[in-house]
Write a structure and sequence with these properties.
Helix content: 40-55%
Strand content: 5-15%
Radius of gyration: 36 Å
Largest sheet: 12 strands, mixed
Oligomer: single chain
Structural class: alpha/beta
Length: 732
């Protein structure tokens, strides 16, 4: 069969991946392509070129530092989900720490009080009694009537100094001057005297200046390091280039490339070495803050809220493949920021890492969902639209009829499998396999949607034609499979009728040009996850809601099957499903749980957990390692999150006011006067400190105490390191 113009992921070589016409098809080369004679990409922080007249305004990303400053910025070890770029760990919490405002005001008041006391002493308003100790301890001859002797003059000055020191000690202790010095004054001197210049600080690092590529020099690739350092200083390198070359160097370390070939490639192409097959070295527009050295994208800032752990307050929160590999579920009503403030930055980050050869990403959403521009992806499948440059493989690129039948059955009736006999989709998969196997044996391909619908309907013309083709091909075993399907067709409880009704949703005029199996179009298959691809699939939401849900289940089933079945799992594969409503089934949950061990993950969003069958809601929250509750969730959804986040031990203080009953007459008079002045009876407070177990976040707090533009996020890494639920401001 002629395969020109198709994408075959099963080949051992990188075959052409034809983009939509009229663009020229890029390739997957085994060696870097020659550098085109164009200007180098802008380094981080460079000005963005002006848009063409009439073009819609692009969202303005935050100002990025220069590439050299970004590369040299410190990154400290932190808990999962913490933005490590220029992160400084906070000092241990001090429960008795005085707030800064109260500390400074107390120090100022004590200074003024000490100054007042000294002024009263010096000007004699308090008499000369404060000088008596000096006169008692020194001879009277030192103080003559005509004037003091030299010894008396020195005695007075020393005594005055001792009094000043005593006042400073007393009022300094009252005003906590030592803490003011340690907290505010000493760091200023330390920063001015002890901190070296930025260049000197980089040179003093144990690993050396990262701009000089010390790990390449340590391995003997001095010429390659010199070329890369020169490109970086000349502004010809950006963060994507750095991440891509680091990926290639890791391949050298792993033995897939030789050091000689790596050095030769770098000397010839410099920062453009080992380019992405598309030729792109950056995205057209960035709307979020990325750190490709740490593989992170910043989502926001943890609020300075008492419900947040002390170490997380005020720090940046981010997502990376290390936590996305445990999968993420975000729940929130429309407008809560799931797509614009979480899904879009994550897709953008994964696309950047795909350009660096580290990730394969598949983003699925409704048309116009805002997952990114067409130019930011290698493959854009617009199902139901005539301008789509790619078709979608309904069978996931497999040649096994049983595997194809299982995936297709999950897509067609996975949401209603619990109501079928047996409680799952196995009978439906068997019925499909009894048709897919014979059809492939007879025609060398799987049936198209109209052909499959006719066979499921039991059309005598279609069945007889398939029977004759099997007899001509001598496929007796497959003929027996077909006869078994014919005998079951029309019997009470036959699942074929239901399958025919469901496949009819895809046999519509809007989808007439899609799901073609004859090879006339460019079918895209998720078997391509072994390549660093950027894929976006637009679902036909408007007017075809049920078909969109089926296709979403189909993509999810194919992704879990293909990601787990990859031979090379060095690339992180991620599926981003912008709306996972009615796609979560028992089989989908089992597939999501398998992704973690296959270096893959899924990002799912829901408007509410009611879009998931009730029996699967707790299982879904348990299957994912990252959970996100956006502002506006209901108390019912909040109760599920509160249950999965569990409880913690906290210290509570109960303050009780008790009225004092005076017995003495003078005390009664004083209490009466105080009550007249303050309007309150004289009371005493008793404080009871207890340690109790409470929910980290209650259902009521999640439903009513999360401000707009915020979310509560918890993450877990693939190594099992878990983070607490943190209230994060998605706008900062």
């Amino acid at each position: 069969m002629d395969t020109e113009g198709t994408f075959d992921p099963r080949s051992t070589r990188h075959n052409p991946l034809p983009p939509p016409p009229p663009q020229s098809p890029p390739s997957f080369p085994t060696a870097p392509p020659p550098v085109p004679p164009t200007a180098p990409p802008a380094a981080p922080g460079a000005p963005v070129p002006a848009q063409a007249p009439g073009a819609p305004p692009a969202p303005g990303p935050a100002a990025r530092p220069s590439f050299v400053a970004w590369l040299r910025a410190p990154r400290s070890e932190a808990a999962p989900g913490v933005w490590t770029y220029e992160h400084k760990p906070k000092a241990p919490e001090e429960p008795d720490r005085i707030p800064g405002r109260r500390l400074l005001s107390g120090a100022l008041i004590s200074l003024l009080c000490g100054w007042l006391v000294w002024s009263l002493l010096w000007n004699g308003y308090l008499g000369g009694y404060w000088l008596w100790p000096m006169y008692l301890l020194t001879p009277d001859s030192w103080y003559e009537r005509g004037g003091n002797t030299q010894a008396g003059w020195w005695a007075q000055r020393i005594y005055i100094g001792i009094v000043l020191v005593g006042l400073a000690v007393i009022f300094g202790r009252v005003g906590h001057w030592s803490e003011v010095w340690a907290r505010y004054v000493a760091p200023l001197f330390r920063r001015a005297w002890d901190e070296p210049a930025p260049e000197a600080a980089v040179a003093m690092r144990p690993e050396g200046d990262p701009l000089e590529w010390p790990h390449l020099r340590a391995a003997g690739a001095h010429s390659a390091a010199d070329r890369l350092a020169a490109d970086a200083r000349a502004g010809a390198m950006n963060d994507v280039d750095h991440a891509r070359i680091e990926r290639a160097w890791q391949s050298v370390r792993a033995g897939r490339y030789s050091l000689a070939s790596f050095t030769d490639t770098v000397l010839r192409h410099g920062a453009a070495s080992y380019g992405h097959p598309s030729g792109a070295r950056d995205l057209p527009v960035r709307t979020a803050r990325h750190d490709l050295l740490a593989h992170q994208v910043r989502l926001g800032t943890a609020s300075d809220d008492p419900r947040n752990p002390y170490q997380h307050r005020g720090v940046g929160l981010a997502l990376e493949p290390d936590v996305l590999a445990t999968s993420l579920l975000a729940v929130g009503p429309p407008g809560s920021g799931k797509t614009g403030r979480m899904v879009r930055p994550v897709v953008e980050s994964l696309c950047l890492q795909a350009l660096a050869g580290q990730v394969a990403v598949v983003a699925v959403g409704a048309a116009g969902a805002g997952l990114g521009a067409d130019e930011a992806f290698d493959v854009v499948v617009k199902i139901g639209r005539p301008d789509s440059g790619y078709d979608f493989d309904l069978y996931g690129g497999t040649t096994d009829p049983d595997e194809a039948a299982g995936i297709l059955a999950e897509a067609l009736i996975g949401d209603m499998a619990a109501s079928l006999p047996g409680g799952d989709s196995r009978r439906a998969a068997t019925a499909l396999a009894q048709l897919l196997g014979p059809y492939r044996a007879a025609h060398g391909r799987f049936p198209s949607v109209p052909d499959l619908r006719e066979l499921l309907d039991g059309s005598k013309t279609a069945v007889n034609a398939l029977r004759e083709a099997l007899d001509a091909a001598g496929e007796r075993a497959q003929a027996r499979e077909l006869e078994a399907r014919v005998r079951q067709s029309g019997a009470p409880g036959d699942v074929g009728t239901l399958l025919a009704d469901r496949i009819a949703l895809l046999d519509r005029p809007a989808f007439a040009d899609f799901f073609d199996t004859t090879g006339d179009r460019r079918p895209f298959s998720l078997r391509a996850l072994e390549h660093p691809l950027r894929v976006r699939i637009d679902l036909p939401e408007r007017g075809h809601a049920e078909a969109s849900r089926m296709l979403a289940r189909l993509v999810l089933a194919q992704f879990t099957e293909c990601a787990v079945g990859r031979a090379d799992r060095s690339l992180f594969a991620c599926l981003v499903l912008d709306d996972a409503s009615h796609t979560i089934t028992p089989e989908a949950l089992r597939g999501i749980q398998r992704l973690r061990s296959a270096h893959a993950g899924a990002v799912l969003t829901l408007r509410t957990l009611d879009d998931v069958p009730e029996a699967l809601r707790s299982a879904l929250l348990g299957a994912v390692g990252c959970r996100m509750a956006c502002a506006g969730v209901t108390t019912w959804d909040g109760a599920r999150f509160a249950e999965v986040w569990g409880t913690e031990w906290v210290e509570t203080r109960d303050v009780t006011d008790r009225q004092i009953i005076a017995e003495e007459p003078l005390t009664k008079v004083l209490h009466f006067i105080r009550k007249v002045v303050t309007g309150k009876a004289v009371t005493t407070q008793s404080v009871t400190v207890r340690t109790v177990e409470r929910e980290r976040w209650s259902a009521s707090e999640l439903a009513h105490a999360v401000p707009a533009g915020h979310a509560v996020l918890s993450v877990t890494s693939v190594r099992g390191e878990g983070g607490p639920p943190v209230l994060v401001d998605l706008r900062g």
